[in-house]
Amino acid sequence: MDQGAAAAFAGTAGAVGAVVGGLVTGFFTQRAARLGAQKTGEAMIEQVERQAVATREDWLLQHRLDAYMGLMQAYDRFVEQAKPFMEALTFEAANRSELFAMTKATELAVTQAYFKVRAFGPEGVREPANALRTAVNEFRGALDGWELALSSGSLDRGRQERRAEDRLRTATSAHAEFVTSVRDVAVSVENRPRTGVTS
Question: Is the pTM of this model over 0.70?
């Protein structure tokens, strides 16, 4: 083989080697870039998902706390109205019907607030909230019985008064249990593992 042909062959082989090497290098470079982009995309999706979970948890927690506070405030307003009504019943005051209407309205607010707690939960708070709502309804029912006994001149008014006082104690106890369940939720929130998302 003469030197020109050998040089041409070597040149052709070198060119083919360069082209093949370029193709292989390009293939692996492209593959590495694609894998890098895929890993970056997966990491971004994971971060967005964790952020969405954290945002949902915070949203739910805020609505729960608002519902709990609403029920506690509604109960406080109910008791603020019920106690003067009880005094009016005890002393057979003339303004009983006005106080009765106000007590009934605040009882309705307790029921409405309960349904917000029921919507947001969790179950460990729903049950004490329902017990509180039920106790308030029964207390107001006992007040109704007392008012009816007074209005009708019934000799049963002493028993109705004791029944109302007993229902008030039950409502007070139910309120304390509800507050404890809310405190338990607050403690569990403080101790919950964070999702690893930084704000």
Answer: yes
